[in-house]
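Whiteboard transcription, Tuesday session. T.W. wrote the structure tokens on the left side:
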């Protein structure tokens, strides 16, 4: 499945279960399975029954994030909105599936600077460094000490001074100002007494220090250190060998892209799906450079479970994306 984008200047391109793009210029694009469209400053995504691009209203978006089946947006006033295949929850956790084709305001959230969507839950980061969660909570990914799902956002207790957040499939992560990484939900954590459990409240992940950003996807976890090195693992933490001067990482389901200071893109990890460079190989470790790609300013990768995507971006030039499922 291929789509072609043409634009004078690409400012953001993101793949994560669904596809979104925000561009300064109008773009033309064609996609068989879904239609994703942009005019001016915002994108919506709809099923294939929409045959032509749609001009989205100028809603004043500051940031857009995409979960597995739902979307999140922050307006310029700091409020949060959501749409897509959403699920509502009663106070007792009962679920009702809904499909919101237009953004709906998430109550109780103000002065939000970042959002992240998981499989069935969402995270918001306040400008004061607090973290808020809502949605599905089957694995404790809301961080409130329970497994009860809820529709209303609540602040994650005891978690402050956070600078970045990541929602994954059934789990959540946060990076604090001091470079420590915290996580909760569906992953194995070993307590000091040796007990292994899935934490339903935030716990500090051992082995990570001086971290500036993290990227997750469908069981994969990577952390970027302030010195440009990349680290992985939620138990035994290891460094990705032979890789330095990295400024951004983007995790797919079983593979990772790293953007270096010089504008080159590198990839590593399991690549049985052939999503790294379009050529199916058994494994792409150690990191390999994507040939013919340069002057890249941003990378993103898909980790939407059974849907895998990859992309190549050339800043200021024509863009070609190849996706696979």
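and on the right, the sequence the group agreed on:
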């Amino acid at each position: 499945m291929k789509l072609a984008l043409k634009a004078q200047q690409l400012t953001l391109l993101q793949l994560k279960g669904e596809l979104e793009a925000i561009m300064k210029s109008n773009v033309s694009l064609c996609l068989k399975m879904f239609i994703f469209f942009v005019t001016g400053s915002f994108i919506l995504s709809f099923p294939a029954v929409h045959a032509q691009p749609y001009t989205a209203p100028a809603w004043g978006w500051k940031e857009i994030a995409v979960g597995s089946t739902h979307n999140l947006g922050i307006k310029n006033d700091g409020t949060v909105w959501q749409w897509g295949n959403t699920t509502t929850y009663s106070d007792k956790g009962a679920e009702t599936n809904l499909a919101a084709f237009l953004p709906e305001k998430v109550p109780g959230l103000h002065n939000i600077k970042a959002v992240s969507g998981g499989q069935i839950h969402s995270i918001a980061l306040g400008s004061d460094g607090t973290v808020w969660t809502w949605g599905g909570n089957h694995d404790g990914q809301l961080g409130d000490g329970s497994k009860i799902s809820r529709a209303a956002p609540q602040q994650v207790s005891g978690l402050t001074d956070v600078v970045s957040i990541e929602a994954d499939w059934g789990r959540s992560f946060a990076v604090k100002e001091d470079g420590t990484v915290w996580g909760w939900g569906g992953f194995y954590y070993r307590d000091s007494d040796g007990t292994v459990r899935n934490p339903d409240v935030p716990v500090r992940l051992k082995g990570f220090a001086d971290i500036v950003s993290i990227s997750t996807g469908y069981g994969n976890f990577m952390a970027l250190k302030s010195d440009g090195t990349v680290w992985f693992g939620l138990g035994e933490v290891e460094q990705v060998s032979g890789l330095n001067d990295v400024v951004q990482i983007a995790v797919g389901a079983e593979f990772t892209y790293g953007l270096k200071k010089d504008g080159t893109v590198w990839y590593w990890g399991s690549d049985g799906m052939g999503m790294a460079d379009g050529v199916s190989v058994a494994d792409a470790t150690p990191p390999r450079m994507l040939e013919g790609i340069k002057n890249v300013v941003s990378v993103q990768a898909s980790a939407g479970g059974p849907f895998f995507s990859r992309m190549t971006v050339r800043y200021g030039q024509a863009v070609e994306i190849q996706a696979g499922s």
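Someone added at the bottom: The chain is about 0% helix and 50% strand.
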